[in-house]
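User: I'm writing a tutorial on reading structure tokens. Could you give me a worked example: one chain, its sequence, then its tokens, then a sentence or two explaining what the tokens reveal?
Assistant: Sure. Here is the example chain.
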Amino acid sequence: MTARERVVVVGAGVSGLTAGAVLAEAGASVRVMAEQVPGATSLAAGAMWGPYLVEPKDKVDLWGQRSLEVFRELAEEPATGVRLTSGIEASRTAETAPDWAMTLPGFRPCEPAELPAGFTAGYRFTVPLIDMPTYLDYLLRRLRAAGGAVERRRLASLADAAPASAIVNCSGLGARDLVPDPELRPIRGQHVVVTNPGLTEFFSEDTSHSPDLLCFYPHGDAVVLGGTAIDGEGNLQGRVVNVSAGHARELRKS
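And here are its predicted structure tokens:
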């Protein structure tokens, strides 16, 4: 990449801001275009590192390991919002742990006494936990420090982002209209943020492909509780924002 190359990144969620920051640091002239900055869906994430509802597995495994390396480095900087956190993922059925979990530091099967009532198996490990509002602010600062620009703008198509040497499409579900790609569909998640009563470890349930999720992710004074993964549901009507201990999350996201 050179300063002569003008790159437009469409979308300002975690993918768009990451792409913009990395490309700007590589020497490109970067402009991030998005209606919402940062993107509402990324703001509402939990968030714990780990592959979920993504394919193809062979490529995702490689991408996931690379992102894990980067998040471990970022965890050394408190201002990024990334922390290495220990916790438990449990199941109500006796199942083997996922491949990705077995590679994590501190991985071990849980003793029965460590599991909540109703759970038959569980695994303890240490994994990056990301406070998304803090992390997205960090990415924005990094983008701007590298000379990148941000433009709040609603696009009717990717062609509206021209002229550019390259257009990087990080619009998420918005690509259904921008590309267009009518086969894209939403998966609706819900989280609520409450004041942290003193939790320092995460807990999540392996619910396989169920739309009902169970997790809690502590972030300092706040805890993110979840959640859902409703396939094909993208309704954001009646959206509620909960403010707790200086944090804000959208309870509904798609």
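What the tokens reveal: The radius of gyration is 19 Å. The chain has a mean pLDDT of 89.
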